[in-house]
Amino acid sequence: MSIAPPRTEASEEETMILDVVRRLVRERVEPRAAEIDATAEFPWDIKELFAENDLLGIPFPSEFGGLGGSFLTYVKVVEEVAKACASSSLIIAVQELGALPILIGGSDEQKRRWIPDLAAGTTIAAYALTEPGSGSDAAGSMRTTARRDGDAYVLDGSKIWITNGSVADVVTVFAVNDATKGPNGISAFVVEKGTPGFGIGKLEKKMGIRGSPTVSLTFDNCRVPVANRLGEEGEGFKIAMKVLDKSRPGIAAQALGIAQGALDYATDYTKQRVAFGKPISQQQGLQFMLADMRTEVEAARLLLYESARKCDDGAADVTLWAAMAKLKCGDVAMSVTTDAVQLLGGYGYSAEYPVERMMRDAKITQIYEGTQQIQRIVIARSMVGKWSPPKS
Ligand code: CAA
């Protein structure tokens, strides 16, 4: 009888991919990280590097041009890249986020139309759910509308905080087609770059992930063919939520990578820096900090990898695990990077050293893809349900 390998063991394919990624990160990504942050420009060279090495479609099915890799491999790749550069890791994570609505809600024809180019990295995807007045309350406050007109839908409204919105070739846009139906009156559409009436608005100046463009999008009488609707009319919100179940672990991986990168840097620093006659790593007060940081990072990693395995297994409770992974990894990223800055003292506060960038980059992981408060709502609802007022 063959015994399945323990779940913690990496497959041969995963080991190979991670070896390549570690080399690329060391040679090409890490040396660019500070510059990407300083210039706040989308790193096209890094996007090309990832495309050439097949890193943009790791978990996409091979029949649609993807690598057909596991979800676990995908999150480990995001984590490796984020150890050096959070903005670069987002190129991989948002390609996944932007392609997922098509993979989850699209027909075979739609997948064949868009996924191979996204997997190859010749096109870029974005995901447009959030609006100026609709962040956490994604369904209840959505105002962008989609009105059916013959063989098209006419989209009107705007989206905000759209990662990669200005560089994307295909954007999945969620819009209200029937305001009387609440979440069941929302549909999903793929809007292609250059579609008349589709505009790119303000580029945000941000605290962190500065190499990742975040923009607003406008839709003004924008005609989108019915053939670009994903799923049935009214299925859009459920598609949006199913996407987040699989994309939140990607952001958790980004957060974990940032935390690990900061911990590695701070640990090395404490071994070099001498105070009161010995390396500060030998000061018990700082050892306690290092020990807590390491323990938190490892705990977050276990939760993340388990959530990724749940995605691979198609587990029924993936919503819960994705939310727990995002919550834990985001909070650990923030606390560990803050402590890393503390361990470096004045140097930690200087842009000469990477930990201040890591601390700025960490903050967004507590905000996007659902705030930490939203993750807690999702987790608690999986335990006690959503309350509805009794019908009179
Ligand atoms: N899978 C499938 N269906 C789901 C679902 C899921 N995970 N979650 C909810 N649904 C279904 C519900 O079952 C319900 O269906 P029925 O009407 O048939 O019962 C319907 O969707 C509505 O669900 P809720 O009643 O739970 O909806 P709600 O209005 O209470 O909202 C919420 C739930 C969890 C708060 C949700 O609005 C949410 O996740 N908000 C946060 C939005 C978010 O994460 N935005 C991130 C934007 S993307 C981003 O940030 C990317 C980036 O920049 C990199």
Describe the 3D structure:
The structure is a single chain. The chain has helices at residues 12-29, 33-39, 44-52, 71-84, 86-105, 108-120, 236-272, 284-313, 318-344, 354-364, 372-384, and strands at 125-128, 145-149, 152-163, 170-176, 186-192, 198-203, 214-225, 229-230, 274-275, 278-279. The protein is globular, with a radius of gyration of 21 Å. The chain has 392 residues and is an alpha+beta fold.
**Average pLDDT number:** 96
- Tell the overall outline: globular
Proportion of β residues? Answer: 15-25%
Radius of gyration: 21 Å
Q: Name every ligand kind in the structure.
A: acetoacetyl-coenzyme A
The total count of helices amounts to: 11
DSSP summary, beta strand count: 10
Helix/strand-derived category reads alpha+beta
Terminus-to-terminus distance: 60 Å
Indicate the percent of residues in helices: 40-55%
**Assembly state (oligomeric):** single chain
Poorly predicted runs: none
Could you give the order of strands across the largest sheet?
1-4-5-8
Note the run of SSEs as H and E: HHHHHHEEEEEEEEHEEHHHH
Major sheet characteristics: 4 strands, mixed
Helix/strand layout:
Elements: H1 12-29, H2 33-39, H3 44-52, H4 71-84, H5 86-105, H6 108-120, E1 125-128, E2 145-149, E3 152-163, E4 170-176, E5 186-192, E6 198-203, E7 214-225, E8 229-230, H7 236-272, E9 274-275, E10 278-279, H8 284-313, H9 318-344, H10 354-364, H11 372-384
Parallel strand pairs: 1-4
Antiparallel strand pairs: 2-3, 3-7, 4-5, 5-8, 6-7, 9-10
Helix pairs in contact: 1-4, 4-5, 4-7, 4-8, 5-6, 5-7, 7-8, 7-9, 7-10, 8-9, 9-10, 9-11
Acetoacetyl-coenzyme A is lined by residues 94, 97, 127, 129-130, 136, 138-140, 161, 163, 183-184, 237-238, 241-242, 244-245, 319, 368-370, 374, 377-378, 386.
